[in-house]
Write a structure and sequence with these properties.
The protein has 329 residues and is an all-beta fold. 2% of the residues lie in helices and 49% in strands. The chain has one helix and 21 strands. A hairpin with a 6-residue loop joins strand 6 and strand 7.
C-alpha cells in the first residue's frame, strides 16, 4: 500500500513507466484457455497463472479499474482506483489498488464523502488531463464525476447517460482524448444469444458546474464470440493509444461460478480535430485471449504501453488482478 499522504496523481498521465513493467516483474500473461477445460464450481481461481487475490468475498470484487500514477511506479508497482458493485449501506464502493504483478495486490477502501452511496458501480475511468479526477458509472446509467482527496472520494456532480433504453444494464465505460478533445464510449452489457451489447460513443466534456455533457451519440451492436451461454457481451471497455477498442466479455451462471471470460479486439474509436467521434465495431470481433475460471469486469490499457491490467468480480471467491500483453498491437 502506498503512503496515505500521497494523493492519486493525474490519470491521463505518465503511467507508462509503471505499466511497462507489468509483464516483466513476474506476472504471467494468461494463455488462451483450452476448449472444454471448464473448472468446477468453487474451484480456487488463484490457481490460474498470474492472478493475485485482492478480495476474498462477494463484497470485495473489482467491477471497474482506472490506472493512476503512484510514487512506486519505478519499482514495478501499479496503482489504480477500483470500484465495487455493492448495494447495501456501509459496504465499500471505491478503493485504491496497489498491485505488484506476480507478487501481491492490496485494496485500501476510500470513503464515499458526498451524498447517498451509489448503487451498483460497474466502471471507472480517469479524466484525461485532470489531476485526481475520475468518472464512475452505475449500472442504471448514472455517471459520477469524482475528485479524490486523500482517503475520500468526493462527488463533483452526477449526470445520466443519454439514450438510455428500457432494460439497459451498463458495465463498461471509457474515455479517450485526441487533439485536445474528449470522447466517451460505453455499453449495455447485453445478455446471452437474444440480447447483444449496445455500444454508444459521443463527444464528452464537463461544463462549468462539473456536469458531464455528451454530444451526438453513435450507436451500434456487439456480439462476443466467446464465451457462449450466459454471456455478458461487454463487461468493460478500454481504448488504446491507437484507438482500438478492447472489450471484455464474461459468463456468470451464479455466485459460485463457474466463470469464463475473454478480451476482444472489437473495433475502433476515433476523434478528429473538430471533436467529431467515429465508432466502428467489428461484426466478428477477434478474441485476443480467453480466461477460464474468472469473471473479468475491468480491463484497462496504460497509455503508451502494451500491458493491460485486468480485474475480476468472482462473486463469492472475491476479486483478482492480473496483467496481459493485449494493448500494444
Amino acid at each position: 500500500m502506498f503512503p496515505r499522504t500521497t494523493v492519486l496523481s493525474t490519470a491521463a498521465v505518465t503511467v507508462a513507466t509503471s505499466a511497462a513493467v507489468l509483464l516483466s516483474t513476474g506476472a504471467a500473461a494468461t494463455p488462451a484457455a483450452t476448449p472444454g477445460a471448464t473448472p468446477s464450481p468453487g474451484a480456487a481461481p488463484s490457481a490460474t497463472p498470474g492472478w493475485q487475490q485482492a478480495g476474498d468475498d462477494i463484497t470485495s470484487g473489482i467491477s471497474g479499474l482506472a490506472l493512476a500514477d503512484g510514487p512506486h511506479g519505478s519499482h514495478g508497482v501499479a496503482h489504480a482506483l477500483v470500484v465495487r458493485d455493492n448495494k447495501k449501506p456501509g459496504q465499500n464502493r471505491v478503493g485504491e489498488l496497489s498491485y505488484r504483478p506476480g507478487r501481491s495486490a492490496h485494496i485500501e477502501p476510500l470513503a464515499w464523502a458526498d451524498g447517498a452511496e451509489p448503487i451498483d458501480l460497474e466502471a471507472i475511468e480517469a479524466v484525461p488531463g485532470a489531476s485526481d479526477e475520475f468518472v464512475a458509472l452505475a449500472s442504471r446509467g448514472l455517471v459520477y464525476h469524482l475528485k479524490v482527496r486523500g482517503s475520500e472520494a468526493h462527488v463533483l456532480d452526477t449526470s445520466p447517460f443519454p439514450a438510455i433504453a428500457e432494460g439497459d444494464d451498463y458495465e463498461s465505460f471509457a474515455l479517450t482524448s485526441r487533439h485536445g478533445k474528449m470522447a466517451a464510449v460505453w455499453a449495455d452489457r447485453g445478455a446471452g444469444k437474444e440480447r447483444p451489447a449496445t455500444v454508444h460513443a459521443a463527444p464528452f466534456s464537463f461544463n462549468e458546474y462539473d456536469e458531464a455533457e455528451f454530444g451526438h451519440v453513435s450507436t451500434t451492436r456487439l456480439r462476443a464470440p466467446y464465451p457462449t451461454g450466459a454471456v455478458r457481451h461487454a463487461s468493460d471497455i478500454s481504448v488504446t493509444d491507437s484507438g482500438r477498442l478492447l472489450v471484455s466479455s464474461a459468463s456468470d451462471v451464479g455466485d459460485d461460478g463457474p466463470f469464463d471470460s475473454a478480451v476482444m479486439d472489437a473495433g475502433t474509436l476515433s476523434v478528429n480535430r473538430s471533436g467529431k467521434v467515429r465508432l466502428s465495431v467489428a461484426k466478428h470481433p477477434d478474441v485476443l485471449r480467453k480466461f477460464k475460471g474468472h469473471k473479468i469486469e475491468a480491463v484497462e490499457c496504460a497509455p503508451g504501453s502494451g500491458p493491460a491490467v485486468l480485474g475480476t468480480d468472482d462473486e463469492n471467491a472475491g476479486g483478482y488482478v492480473n496483467s496481459a500483453d493485449l494493448c500494444g498491437r
